[in-house]
Amino acid sequence: MFKWFGKVNFSPYTKVADFAQFLKDGYLMGTKCKKCGAKSFPPRADCGVCMHDEFEFIELTGAGTLHTYTKIEAAPTGFETLAPYIVGLIDLDDIPCRLLAWIGDTIKEDEIKIGMKVQVVPKVFDELENIKVYYCLEKPGTTWGKTKSS
Amino acid sequence: MSKVGIIGIGHGVFGRRSDATVQELAFEAFRSALKDAGIERKDLDASVIGSVPEYHKQRSLPGVVTEYLGLQPKPTWLTEVACASGSAAMRTGWMAIKSGAHNIVAIIGCQKMTELETPEILALMGRVGEVQWESIYGTTFPGYYALFAHRHMHEFGTTHDQMLQVAVKNHFYGAKNKYAFFQKEITLEKARDSETVASPLQVFDCCVNADGAACVILATEDHAKALCKNKPIVWLDGMASATASMSVLRRPNLYSIPSAELAGAQAYEMAGVKPSDINVAEVHDCFTIAEIMAYENLGFCKKGEGGKFIQERQSYIGGKTPVNVDGGLKAKGHPIGATGVSMTAEITKQLRGEAGERQVPNARIGLTHNVGGIGQYTFVQILRRD
Fold it and tell me: What is the pTM of this model?
């Protein structure tokens, strides 16, 4: 159900669709190639290294380091009511990959600094009727619930 | 292998052109180029249209443009690589001549952007990032370059004031360009006072969406020599292009555009020149930080010294490498499909000595640097006058 991912979703169908179910259950997942073992975030179905087409999901801790950021004041269609929002780009600690997300409420704007440690936290848009999941950058040590079924 | 020369250039007024359709804009630039070349429509073997289709209600632009311009039944095609679509048209036109398929080809960059509202344009342009993992966070085009700006500041100590000095320079020269959207100088204080779009970038860090068209006519060496009896021929000596990852998640760093470094190096090698040989350059200043990175990526200064380069006025006429002395995207406006062709037309004008009060004295070798998206595509051309 990849259409769950994001407030506005532009690509509802993908071979890594289970990512959204995992996220809803509280797990941030990357992928691992079943042949060469190359790890990816964002998840990818087809290996960029050896071109093998079988993968498995792997759980990531979501610990990372802020690489750069911006506070977006002029928002595009579909995001006007959320503006202004701060987008952070981080380097993940687990694997040499990056992730982009909003900086959440636990980090104050004047605390934001390139190089700071952050925690990726799975979230659900409470105010929306349909299921909408995403992830956010919060202070290290922030906790959240996980569903055992995943 | 025979060289490819520029025999004609044409440029329309860039701006909010509520008076014209996209084919009418194309007509303005095309008619001027034809007159400049001293040829007739029947002399053309083909036309290439550089444009980004999403902005137009009209589908399949080459058909409507070539019909309005009276270029049928000769072949035509469209090139699209976001903001570098014009230079992609230049490249395929150059390839068509190099291959021997055609002798004389018209390159027409044309774009109508202002029929869409700004949030729609922000949404469209933001989706030049990866929609699956990035656009869901409301990323915008200024937002992407803002990510580069903050990292460049962190890495090299570049200041936001240095970025705004790029805007001051480009408005200074835009004021001297009758085709520019903003023909008005600005002060640093005025730039500092503008609203924030995506921190640290403010309104005056951003180029303006515009409507407009530009045209360049290319010919084989033999045809160029036969046709350009009374004016200098400008030759395409270096034609390079490179790509980089769609997503910022997979870029080697966030303070440089790797496709620009690669295309720049290839163009210098092909033309047999080095950065210090460039007398005048047109670079892709969609945002002020982009011009600073361009100085570095093209070797006009060392990596990390782009901020200093503008602060010391090295990109003004009289400095080491005059850059965007027609106003750049910032003041001239950025009708995305037309921009690359406009750059080539401007450098041609400079190399012919026809740039009037913004002429770089004795310019013989020039460069264009046209970036698509956030550097997913870069085209670098090196032009030389005989």
Answer: 0.96
Query: Domains of chain A: which residue ranges?
Result: 2-27+62-138
Which positions in chain A touch B136 (Cβ < 8 Å)?
5-10, 134
Amino acid at B79: T
Cβ-count burial of A132 within 10 angstroms (0-12 exposed, 13-18 middle, 19+ buried)? buried
- For the cut 70, the answer to whether the pLDDT of residue A126 exceeds it is yes
pLDDT tens track for B91-120: 999 999 999 999 999 999 999 999 888 888
Q: DSSP string of B125-151?
A: HHTTS-TTTTGGGT--HHHHHHHHHHH
Whose CA is closest to B27, among B214, B224, B246, B194?
B214
pLDDT, tens digit, for every residue of B260-278? 999 999 999 999 999 999 9
| Residue pair B119/A66 in contact by the 8 Å Cβ criterion | no
Pick the CATH number of A2-27+62-138 from 3.30.56.10, 3.30.160.60, 2.40.50.840, 2.170.130.30: 2.40.50.840
Beta-carbon separation of B198 and A67 below 8 A: no
A79 phi-psi bin (left φ>0, alpha ψ -120 to 50, beta other): alpha
Distance CA(B240)–CA(B267), nearest Å, equals 5
Q: Is B171 a catalytic residue?
A: no
Domains of chain B: 4-116+209-227 (3.40.47.10)
B223, B205 Cβ separation under 8 angstroms: no
Torsion A19-A24-A28-A34 (CA) sign: negative
Q: Indicate if B301 belongs to the active site.
A: no
CA–chain centroid gap for B35, Å, is 23
**Per this entry, what is the length of chain A?**
150
Nearest CA in chain B to A109: B199
